TrEMBL record:
Keyword Cytoplasm: yes
Gene3D superfamilies (UniProt xref): 3.70.10.10, DNA Polymerase III, subunit A, domain 2 (3.10.150.10)
Domain of life of the native organism: Bacteria
First-listed, main subcellular location of the protein, grouped into a coarse class: cytoplasm
Summary of the function given for this chain in its UniProt record: Confers DNA tethering and processivity to DNA polymerases and other proteins. Acts as a clamp, forming a ring around DNA (a reaction catalyzed by the clamp-loading complex) which diffuses in an ATP-independent manner freely and bidirectionally along dsDNA. Initially characterized for its ability to contact the catalytic subunit of DNA polymerase III (Pol III), a complex, multichain enzyme responsible for most of the replicative synthesis in bacteria; Pol III exhibits 3'-5' exonuclease proofreading activity.
Keywords: Cytoplasm, DNA replication, DNA-binding, DNA-directed DNA polymerase, Nucleotidyltransferase, Transferase
Cross-referenced SUPFAM superfamilies: DNA clamp
Protein name in the entry: Beta sliding clamp
Provenance organism: Maritalea porphyrae
Subcellular location: Cytoplasm
Amino acid sequence: MKVTLERNHLLKSLGHVHRVVERRTTYPILSNVLLNASDGGLQLRATDLDIEVTESVPAMVGTPGTTTVPAHTLYEIVRKLSDGAEVNIEVDGAGEQMAITSGRSKFNLTCLAADGFPDLKSGDFSHQFTIKAGALRQLIDCTQFAISSEETRYYLNGIFFHTMDDGANVIMRAVATDGHRLARAQVNAPEGSQGMPSIIVPRKTVAEVQKLLSGDDDDVAVELSDTKIRFEVSGVVLLSKLIEGTFPDYERVIPQNNDKQLTVDTASFKQAVDRVSTIASDRGGKAVKLALSNGLLEMSVTNPDHGTAREELPIEFEDDGFEIGFNARYLLDIIDQVKSDAAIFMLSDAGSPTIVQSENDDDALYVLMPMRV
């Protein structure tokens, strides 16, 4: 194999594919990136057996061929080469060594035969559609923070996607929960997605797709089945297994009768929570207490080891006063998603979950479980 190409093109593609490669693996071939040189250029492919990323880069191919080399090492070599430099890649006749030369720099990497590189076969896809990058980013950004990291509840380790008819439109929903908070976002369902199977996209896949999204008007081609999903965006193809399991009935978690409305300035509320939570105890679950009365919110934290913090905020609240506690970190995660100047809290009582939304925005909804304080 003999290839010549531009450093920046190679670096961009390696940046996309090398991220899925685990740094520690029991199978040496999984530490490598597959390089396939042909008349069409140089194709790069990497996998961790759950996700596979493929991208082609323009190149002058002197001798076609296929091999694999350590992905992270190759990425670091190319990253440290001069901007705009020409890179020459050549594999010896035995296929055991790859020489990488650029200017006065030369590196030799040990190759592993490409025939041992795994292929995450896609199979047949039941649904194909195209969604705008901006819409997909909105679904991910609004829900990603609530993905559970508890491996025993593996079916919560991703974002749940499905379509439904809400009476006026067919919508696509994304939902994530870790049992303490729930995030739900929706957009108009793209043409072709109606009737798609309900799927759970793993956390790592979500993060990789999010990094590939650029301009809001870019098209993202999506193909899916009950077990796999394939994204193609800006020439990068990401194929991933889906989480096999049943996502809980999230509608049962969303309270329907919360009739106490709290309206507060989003920026002021966020800053106040951040300030008083400075002394909150991890042992106490980072608890912050909200005492609501007509026109005033008193926020307080008590830490037996460090002391207390207290702050008052003007609010719009016309019901009988009461107190409720929340985990400060979970509260900040949710308020970070509120894009309007005012945040709306719909409450019931101190022991019931609370709904949080942006003002005049029904496309995103958050549910937060209270704490005893």
